[in-house]
Design brief:
- With about 280 residues, this protein is α/β, with parallel strands linked by helices.
- It has a single domain, classed as TIM Barrel.
- It has an 8-stranded parallel sheet with strand order 1-2-3-4-5-6-7-8.
- The relative contact order is 0.14.
Length: about 280
């Protein structure tokens, strides 16, 4: 069993009857059913993972409240990343209400779903991002390579806002494709900002059904080179992961991808960095 802290820094839960999972079309029918803490617990036990960060899967405050409710009764949920409308003038009041739960660690913007690439640069959003920073709320950014330059602007403008890029910014690697110079240069530039971190997660889905360690190795090597282990964290992206694989396979391949790293680097990526970024407490 691992002796270091082991954290899954990115996974989801949902309850279909809640009715706000608009993205759950027939294309994801295999995971369109209730998925709750008791479903994840065996996977965590098998791999010695004692803490997790659950991330929003619906663009609603109601879902954030649902996740916070789960966290109240589930010991392994150490943090919740929720959602608030960051264009709304009353967003700071919503932050304050949600932060009555100490498990709320951050909020996520699913920029991949917004057509306008520079949407996040609007003044209204900027005011609310600044309000997040003053409250110690982290920003999870679900972005694509087209957003990398914009996110670097945000990071420079708001140095007190801690930002983590989900899924390595979703490089276009399906079918063994090369991630491309736009992704490589954009990630390198983003990593120059000390308030930007990165999740090694979601890559199996980006690679597609025939994914394996070999085509993912250049992606992982690139983010390790530029962010360093102290700003990288591992996540399963479970149960979205189940569309192309399973928890054990991704955990095993992740270990392969990090084989050449020192024990201290692996300890950081598999747990220590997430604890630092989200300010998770072992006894929380």
């Amino acid at each position: 069993m691992p002796t270091s802290i082991q954290i899954d820094a990115h996974h989801h839960f949902w309850q279909i009857s809640r009715g706000d999972y608009d993205w759950m079309t027939d294309e994801v029918a295999d995971i369109r059913h209730d998925i709750l803490p008791q479903d994840l617990a065996p996977h965590l036990a098998k791999h010695g993972i004692t803490g997790t960060v659950v991330v929003q899967a619906a663009a609603s405050v109601a879902e954030t409240e649902f996740l916070l409710g789960l966290a109240e009764t589930c010991d392994f949920i150490k943090g919740v990343v929720g959602w608030v409308d960051l264009e709304a003038t009353d967003a700071p009041h919503v932050f304050d209400r949600l932060q009555t739960s100490p498990k709320l660690k951050g909020l996520r913007l699913t920029l991949q779903d917004i057509e306008k690439t520079d949407w996040i640069l609007s003044p209204a959003v900027g005011v609310n991002l600044a309000a997040m920073a003053t409250r110690g709320l982290r920003l999870d950014a679900l972005i694509q390579p087209r957003h990398l330059q914009v996110m670097a602007q945000v990071a420079r403008a708001l140095p007190d806002l801690q930002i983590v890029v989900d899924h390595c910014a979703k490089p276009v690697i399906s079918g063994g494709a090369d991630a491309g110079d736009l992704w490589r240069s954009g990630m390198a530039q983003l990593a120059e900002q000390p308030n930007v971190w990165c999740k090694i997660s979601g890559l199996a889905n980006e690679a597609g059904p025939e994914w394996s360690a070999a085509p993912l190795q250049p992606v992982v090597d690139h983010v390790v080179r530029h962010f360093g282990a102290d700003r990288l964290m591992w996540g399963s992206d479970w149960p979205v992961l189940n569309l192309v694989g399973d928890y054990a396979a991704w955990r095993g391949v992740s270990a392969q991808l990090l084989e050449g790293r020192s024990p201290s680097e692996r300890d950081a990526i598999f747990g220590g960095t997430a604890c630092k970024f989200y300010q998770l407490e072992a006894g929380q």
